[in-house]
Amino acid sequence: MEDTSVREAAAHTDHPSDTPSPARRRLVASSLATSIGDGIYVPLTMLFIHGLTGLSLTSIGTGLTVAGLTALAFMPAAGILIDRFGGRRVLIGVLALRAVGFAAYPFADSYPAFLTIALVVAVGMWASSPSQQSLIGDLAQGAERDRLLAWDRSLRNAGMGCGSLAAAGMLAWNGTTGFIVAAESLAAVFAIAAVLVARIPQPVRTVTERPDTRGGYRQVLADRPYLLITTANFLIAFGYTAQAMALPVFLTRDVALPDALAGAVFAVNTVLVAALGVPAARLTSRGRRTRTAALGAVTFALSFAAFAALPRLVSGADALVAVLAVAALYTAGELVHSAPAQSLSVQAAPDHLRGRYLSVHQLSWSVCRTIAPLLLGFLLDAGPWHLWTVLALVVLTGAAVLLCAERSLPAHANLPGARTSTM
Question: Whole-model pTM?
Answer without folding.
Answer: 0.82
